[in-house]
Design goal:
The structure is a single chain. It is built from 14 helices and 15 strands. The chain has 398 residues and is an alpha/beta fold. The strands form 4 sheets. Strands 2-8-7-6-5-3-4 form a 7-stranded mixed sheet, with helices on both faces. Strands 9-10-15-14 form a 4-stranded antiparallel sheet. A hairpin with an 8-residue loop joins strand 14 and strand 15. Helix 3 packs across helix 11, helix 5 crosses helix 6 and helix 12 packs parallel to helix 14. Bound molecules: 4'-deoxy-4'-aminopyridoxal-5'-phosphate (PMP) and glutamic acid. The site of 4'-deoxy-4'-aminopyridoxal-5'-phosphate has 13 residues, from helix 5.
């Protein structure tokens, strides 16, 4: 058998995508499965965005674009960053890629030397450690405290800094814990960046999905010095229900954008041209549907937290943003069903899927084995039915 390189053999598959694929495959087989797995808006891409893609096709916009993206899209991204985040960038500072995940990949490739450490606040989104390792870096997990909504504090981050630390990764609003850093907290982190001469990768993909008065601040807007140290990551997937279109982008100092563009020019070239035209329409168009989605997510968040609190043995910290909730299952550890024991997030997830046909993501993938993650980017009916099943499952554990 031909051997896989050690570089690739060391990479674990994405647990979020694996669960999603499993739930979708079960559904396709006619099994009535409830999926709280992948974080994917259940809404359709707004019609005016789809129309822009159809127009682009009809107009023959089917050729290569510059590797860093259509100039009109990079301009629209600059306008958005100024309007929404108070950030002034020029088009040559923007690199459009195949989703924010690809933008993160490029960012770590641009920043890291072998052995460089990246502070990763945990519980963390599954892909971060692998993306860092793929670039030769070392993820250093800084676990937030439940009392602080799982936000890593400046004090905790400071304590994890070593002479090899090069980057602080931020993801606010956060996946999986739904916390949102305040401006004041970001000012503290920006101070650390200055003090230790660190870069920041700031994943802001959930920026619009905030609830109960929380508001999103980009760390790059704290000061011009902070902006010079930061690669902002964002994309279309979550805000515009465009997960399948695969458009993400970075905004960064020009020399980093140039390096990422060169790298991308030899690996994937430009992101899909039709999807880029759709993204222009998304950024320039009306945001009525986006507002509607946020209102609906807020309602579902309310209900899902209530259902968790009402179910004996389960609890959660209320998320302020994104569309996930981490459900604490640790009080069920040691109980079991059919002579199988719940002793980890993975065994809970397997038994729940088998017995109740409900898919959730084991917290182990996020470095938090006492939890499973539920996405509430699903309909209210799905939430109600899902919890009817979860409650029955939990009650059947002995
Ligand atoms: N960052 C975070 C925190 C995410 O949850 C996701 C979800 N896939 C991404 C980045 C990547 O999004 P996409 O590649 O679809 O743009
Ligand atoms: N980001 C989403 C999630 O965490 C989508 C799946 C993925 O890309 O990991 O579920």
């Amino acid at each position: 058998m031909i051997k896989v390189s050690s570089r690739l053999a060391a990479v674990q598959g994405s647990v979020t995508l694996a669960i999603d694929a499993k739930a979708k495959a079960m559904k396709a087989e006619g099994i009535d499965v409830i999926g709280f797995g992948a974080g994917e808006p259940d809404f359709n891409t707004p019609a005016h965005i789809c129309q822009a893609a159809k127009d682009a096709l009809d107009q023959g916009k089917t050729r290569y674009t510059p590797a860093a993206g259509e100039p009109a899209l990079r301009k629209a991204i600059c306008a958005k960053l100024l309007r929404e985040n108070g950030l002034e960038y020029q088009p040559e500072q923007i690199v459009v890629s195949n989703g924010a995940k690809h933008s993160l990949f490029n960012a770590f490739q641009a920043l890291l030397e072998p052995g460089d450490e990246v502070l990763v606040p945990g519980p963390y989104w599954v892909s971060y450690p692998e993306l860092i390792r793929m670039a030769g870096g070392v993820p250093v997990i800084v676990m937030g405290e439940p009392e602080n909504g799982f936000k890593a504090s400046v004090k905790q981050l400071r304590a994890a800094i070593t002479p090899r630390t090069r980057v602080v990764l931020l993801n606010s609003p956060n996946n999986p814990n739904g916390y949102v850093y305040t401006r004041q907290e970001l000012e503290g982190i920006a101070g650390l960046l200055e003090e230790y001469d660190l870069a920041c990768v700031s994943d802001e993909i959930y920026e619009y999905l905030v609830y109960e008065g929380a508001s999103h601040v980009s760390i790059a807007s704290i000061s011009p010095e902070t902006k010079e140290r930061t690669i902002v990551i964002n994309g279309m997937s979550k805000a515009y229900a465009m997960t399948g279109w695969r458009i993400g982008y970075t905004a960064s100092p020009a020399h980093l954008a140039k390096a990422m563009t060169n790298f991308q020019s030899h690996s994937t070239s430009n992101a899909n041209s039709i999807a880029q035209y759709a993204a222009i329409a998304a950024l320039r168009g009306p945001d009525l549907e986006l507002r509607g989605m946020v209102c609906e997510f807020a309602r579902r968040r309310e209900r899902i937290c209530q259902l968790i609190d009402e179910t004996p043995g389960l609890s959660c910290v209320r998320p302020q943003g994104a569309f996930y909730v981490m459900m604490n299952i640790s009080s069920l550890f040691g109980s079991g069903i059919d002579s199988r024991v719940v002793d980890s997030s993975t065994s809970f997830t397997e038994l729940l899927l088998e017995h109740a046909k409900v898919a959730v993501v084991p917290g182990a993938g996020f470095g938090a084995d006492a939890f499973v993650r539920l996405s509430y980017a699903v309909s209210m009916e799905t939430i109600e039915e899902g919890f009817r099943r979860i409650r029955a499952f939990v009650e059947a554990l002995t």
